[in-house]
Specification:
The complex is a heterodimer of chains A (117) and B (111). With 117 residues, chain A is an all-beta fold. Helices cover 0% and strands 53% of the residues of chain A. The chains are: A mainly beta (117), B mainly beta (111). Chains A and B meet through strand 5 and strand 10 of A and strand 7 and strand 8 of B.
């Protein structure tokens, strides 16, 4: 059974860097893309990007200049860094397993990150 | 503003059928067979219910079905049950290489 669990600080100051990790329990972790998505309170979903075990990444062009993702396949750890955050980055952040047909079949429970001073 | 357009709300009585639309462009919904649908209950993660326009993951009831015509995809929920109440989001590949775009979500109410 695939399981994902996000963790990280719930509060980040404006202009600082948001850092989250996602613990992945999947013996085939190296065979899939792993993604981050987010959902501002009361709003819809936004795709942030994805990473493969080889280090190959894709970032949403709207966030590309501020996003870094990595995957430690041996350790089962997915990471997200989002720099220069503003209040608009306040959201529930989800990690998810990506499939080649651009859908997400397993999701973490999500972690709320608020950006405020 | 979301890339894909969904009605903000939909409703139906138990046992009835309801259809939720998801309208995009030839650059996303209309251009690929990569439409998926997610169900989300309050304070929960989204759950995949339809992928590749019409396919259902194991464990998803066959009351849920998907279709597409041109630039509009649709999710039909037949035989509505109380537990179907929640938010539904469509998504599609499109807009840029490897990009996934979402609809703004539809709140389904079971009357």
């Amino acid at each position: 059974q695939v399981q994902l669990q996000e963790s990280g600080p719930g509060l980040v100051k404006p202009s600082e860097t948001l850092s989250l990790t996602c613990s992945v329990s999947d013996f085939s972790i190296a065979s899939y893309y792993w993604s981050w998505l987010r959902q501002p309170p009361g709003k819809g979903l936004q795709y942030i990007g994805r990473v493969y075990a080889s280090g190959t990444t894709f970032y949403n062009p709207s966030l590309q200049s501020r996003v870094t993702m990595s995957l430690d396949a041996s350790g089962g750890l997915l990471s997200l860094r989002l720099s220069a955050v503003t209040a608009a980055d306040t959201a529930v952040y989800f990690c998810a397993r990506s499939r080649p047909a651009y859908f997400f079949d397993y999701w973490g429970q999500g972690v709320l990150v608020s950006v405020a001073s | 503003q979301s890339a894909l357009t969904q009605p903000p709300s939909a409703s139906g009585s138990p046992g009835q059928s309801v259809t939720i639309s998801c309208t995009g462009t030839s650059g996303d919904v209309g251009g690929y067979e990569y439409v998926s649908w997610y169900q989300q209950h309050p304070d929960k993660a989204p759950k995949l219910i339809i992928y590749e326009v019409t396919k259902r993951p194991s464990g998803v009831p066959d009351r849920f079905s998907g279709s597409k015509s041109g630039n509009t995809a649709s999710l039909t929920v037949s035989g509505l049950q109380d537990e179907d109440e929640g938010d539904y989001y469509c998504s599609s590949h499109g807009g840029a290489k490897n990009l996934v775009v979402f609809g703004g979500g539809t709140k389904l109410t079971v009357l």
